[in-house]
Design a protein that fits this description.
CATH class of one domain: Alpha Beta
Distance between the termini: 7 Å
CATH architecture of one domain: 3-Layer(aba) Sandwich
Largest sheet: 4 strands, parallel
CATH topology of one domain: Rossmann fold
Low-confidence stretches: 1-17
Shape: globular
Mean pLDDT: 93
Radius of gyration: 22 Å
Number of strands: 8
Order of helices and strands: EHHHEHEHEHEHHEHEHEH
Strand content: 15-25%
Helix content: 40-55%
Number of helices: 11
């Protein structure tokens, strides 16, 4: 149980009702003390129409962690040119993968499923002492709304978990930034912990390996090579100290070792290049075409940097990157889905949470 309670000798009401025994009658009631676990993912537009897409893209592309050019140069370009045209293109792409039944993006659907399963795991281990919820860095539900909700439910400590296996300034750091900004507005700040990258955790590598083995077992002909496609960032970020590139390379190496493969059967690439400057290479869209021309006619692609399938995997990999491979003479293209709410993935994430709750809960 938690070491801070709202029942017992210092409280006048029945357990859980939260009236301080020595406080005046009009003192605000204090809910039972809990620990909050807040999962954070990138985000999603509310819909794929022009204005929903524009609001989402404006928030995303205005983040200095994502685009660090001077606002004096970047914002006129963003507001007058990019946000005039790109919402139409992005909206069309989102429409092609949209969960029309639930009227939400796949990322939202999957994140909800992940949260529900992790909540069940935490309930088994900690009972009612832990409250699990999720937020999005961009769009809804916002970090602000979910932090406030956890505090209102009595969370006196919060574990914040950016759902990115590898750390990057444009993902993990900006999620943490938003958490800290939200806490600046709180009258009483609960103690918080941020979960570090888990790119080399054995349970995560095992979940990745199992997903590859399941996918390969279903294929009549085994792929010539497995392409591990990670989301890209400008190469400049690596030179400025961002560890993302190194952590991606290590993830691929650990996956290769777990599968018992040699270097010829697996390769690291980077996708989603944006803007004129050089990004981490090789670029996935170009590399799959090169592989096809070099005789690798049967490939599989996995996206280890994404905890859930989203626009970059369902649309970019399955359509744009697949098309590049086919046009270069490739024949068989297999996309291995993200770990999503797979049981091995949930077990890995739950283990990370439990490790980071050490000292707060037994």
């Amino acid at each position: 149980m938690l070491d801070t309670k709202t029942s017992g000798p210092d409280f006048g009401d029945a357990p859980g009702q939260g009236r301080l025994l020595h406080a005046p009658a009009d003192h605000p009631r204090v809910p039972p003390a809990k620990v909050g676990v807040l999962l954070s993912n990138l985000g999603t537009p509310d819909n794929y129409d022009y204005w929903s897409m524009r609001r989402y893209l404006n928030e995303f592309l205005s983040d200095r962690r994502v685009i660090d050019y001077s606002p004096w140069l970047w914002q006129p370009l963003l507001q007058l040119i990019i946000l005039t045209k790109r919402p139409f293109t992005s909206g069309k792409n989102y429409k092609s993968i949209w969960n029309h039944e639930a009227n939400e993006s796949p990322l939202m659907t999957i994140t909800k499923a992940q949260t529900a399963k992790i909540k069940a795991e935490m309930q088994k281990r900690y009972g009612d002492d832990v409250i699990v919820d999720f937020c999005m860095r961009y769009g809804n539900p916002s970090t602000k709304s979910k932090v406030r909700s956890l505090i209102d439910q009595g969370c006196q400590k919060i574990l914040f978990f950016p759902l990115y296996p590898q750390y990057a300034g444009a993902t993990s750091a900006t999620a943490n930034d938003e958490l800290f900004r939200v806490l600046m507005a709180e009258k009483w700040q609960p103690p918080v912990r941020t979960v570090p990258a888990y790119f080399d955790q054995p349970e995560y590598i095992e979940a990745l390996a199992q997903s590859v083995e399941r996918a390969y077992a279903k294929l009549e002909k085994k792929p010539d090579i497995l392409v591990c496609s990670y989301h890209g960032v400008p190469r400049r970020y690596l030179m400025e100290g961002d560890p993302y590139h190194c952590q991606c390379q290590k993830t691929t190496r650990l996956l290769k070792e777990r599968l018992g493969w040699d270097d010829t059967r697996i390769k690291t690439t980077f996708q989603s290049k944006f803007g004129p400057e050089e990004w981490l290479q090789p670029y996935t869209v170009e590399e799959v075409a090169r592989l096809a021309k070099d005789g690798k006619k049967n490939i599989a692609v996995i996206a280890p940097a994404f905890s859930a399938d989203c626009i970059e995997t369902l649309e970019e990999i399955n359509e744009e990157i697949h098309e590049s491979f086919s046009h270069a003479g490739g024949e068989d293209f297999t996309y291995i889905p993200c770990l999503n709410d797979d049981d091995a993935h949930i077990a890995a994430l739950s283990k990370v949470i439990q490790d980071n709750l050490a000292g707060w809960l037994p």
